[in-house]
Design a protein that fits this description.
Layout lengths: L1 H43 L1 H5 L2 H20 L1 H5 L2 H6 L4 E4 L14 E4 L3 E7 L15 H18 L7 E8 L5 H8 L10 E6 L9 E8 L3
Parallel strand pairs: 4-5
Antiparallel strand pairs: 1-2, 3-6, 4-6
Helix pairs in contact: 6-7
């Protein structure tokens, strides 16, 4: 009885310990399973964070549309430029007492803005025949020169009133008074263009006078 009692109590105690340990192990496994089962809950929130991204892209798209709108308005700013140019005077006489006063049909200087016409030097050629007009007569040659200049100015939409500069070339400076008398018929002293007059050693076809000019088209 003593042995059996001891054996029975030992076995039962051992078996009870095993059962207790197994119960604890099952409890631990259940807890781990519970923790593992909760893991997807944490991962499940991830799509919510990514879902906000399109909102940022939409804002960028809105910003690009605003920039496009600003760029489309640019031509409106440039469109005003021609109006400013049209307000500028095309021809203005410059005078000062600190420089020698004009002594003939010319002015000290002319300020000009706009479309300019640069007329090549003209000599006394007849445009129909190509022959020299007024051989040896500086007055007749000057008259033909002025007629040729006028024809070119009219073709360019201007006139002697729009001329801002002339250059007179003479084969002999002694002819200046005769040339100036004809020249003065085409320009009023008050509004005449600036002018330079020089003597040269020789002119084309041995003519006595050549004149070129610059004019501005009136706005």
């Amino acid at each position: 009885d003593g042995v059996m009692g001891w054996w029975g109590d030992g076995v039962m105690g051992w078996w009870g310990g095993v059962r207790s340990m197994r119960s604890k192990q099952l409890t631990t496994n259940n807890q781990l399973s519970t923790i593992n089962n909760q893991q997807p809950t944490t991962n499940y929130q991830q799509p919510t964070t990514n879902y906000q991204q399109p909102t940022t892209n939409y804002q960028l798209s809105t910003t690009n549309n605003q920039l496009s709108t600003i760029n489309n308005q640019q031509p409106t700013i440039n469109y005003q430029q021609p109006t400013i140019n049209r307000r500028i005077m095309s021809r203005e006489i410059i005078r000062t007492e600190k420089a020698p006063a004009p002594v003939g049909p010319y002015n000290q200087a002319i300020a000009a803005a706009g479309k300019m016409i640069f007329v090549a030097g003209q000599i006394a050629l007849d445009p129909n025949t190509g022959a020299i007009v007024g051989e040896g007569d500086v007055k007749k040659q000057t008259e033909q020169v002025m007629a040729n200049l006028e024809a070119i100015l009219l073709a360019g939409g201007t006139s002697f009133a729009d001329v801002v500069r002339t250059t007179v070339f003479l084969a002999d400076m002694n002819d200046f008074a005769a040339v100036n008398a004809v020249y003065a018929k085409y320009f009023d002293e008050a509004t005449a263009p600036a002018r330079a007059c020089v003597q040269v050693s020789r002119l084309p076809k041995d003519v006595l006078v050549e004149i070129d000019c610059i004019a501005v088209v009136s706005s």
